[in-house]
Structures are given as structure tokens and as C-alpha cells.
Design a protein that fits this description.
179 residues, alpha+beta, three-stranded antiparallel beta sheet, 30% strand
Length: 179
Amino acid sequence: NWSPGEGRSYIDLSDLALLATCESKIENGEETSLCGTSNFDILLFKEPSGAEDKYWQDYWEGHQFCCTASAVDSGYCDRSQVNKLIVPSELPEAFSTNFILKPNEVVKFSDDPMMTRHTILESGVYILMMASCDESSPDITLGGQIESMDPYGYVFCYTIVLPSYSSLASLSLIPSIAA
């Protein structure tokens, strides 16, 4: 357990929760659910930043993020990936996982230690993608908040740097005016 200022950055997803809402119909006095389980995929990665790297969305041909039957037919993804988020093998150090959602059951990210906190080792832009790629999937509600913290807490660097820069600029301006 550590607090801000000890040289670590993280993205925390532990407050998020999912709910697959399912409708049911009543026929002859019996209630029948119209849905089954559904998949919910998550992908977290640092945006590639080298000169030879592509813009992050260009890792998906035609910005097709989900594997569909037509994508399998065209060789874009494997049949085992149908109705799942496509995770390009070229994305460095991507974190990917999925949740199986049962009808009307709340799934909390905090229940899965792999999902709670992701340590950030390098500065940069991080992309978090979440998808339910199965078209027959019920509506999914995502609730909660995502927390990110740098080594100095919630204070952005410009709140420290800007006043310091302004003071230095003022000090250098005074001798110029006096001369």
C-alpha cells in the first residue's frame, strides 16, 4: 500500500462495474429470459510513439475493432475470435482480458485483482478500449469511475511549472526594463 509521491503512476479501474440487462417475456404464465451470457472485452495499451509506429487506430484495418464472421472470411481474424475485440499482436505490452456476464448480474472490476490497478512505467497516452462485440448480446451498462494518478498525486505539472515559469519570466523582465 503506497500513497502518491513515492514515484509511481497508475490507472485504477477498481470502481467500475458491469451489468448485462436482459428482458424477459411472460408466456402462459411462465417467465422466459431472452438472453444468455455475454462477453465484454477490455484492452489497455500505451499509444505507440516511435517514428515507425502507426497511429493507434491504424492497427485495426478499416477501424474494425470486433471480429465478425465477415472478418474471419477475409482473413482479418481467426474463427476463435468471433464476437471478441481484436487484439493486434503488434501492440507492445497490451493488457487484454474479458468478462463473462450472466443476465442481470453485476460484475465489479474490483473482484478481479488483474483489473484493479495498472502500474504505469512510462509517460505517454494510454488507450482503454471496452467492447461487447456480440451483436446478440443484451444491453450492457458500465458504471463507476476511472482514476489515474501520477507520482505527485492529482496535481498536474502545469500547476507547479507555470507559476514558477511566470516568476522567472517576471524576474528577467525587470532588468530589461531597468536597462
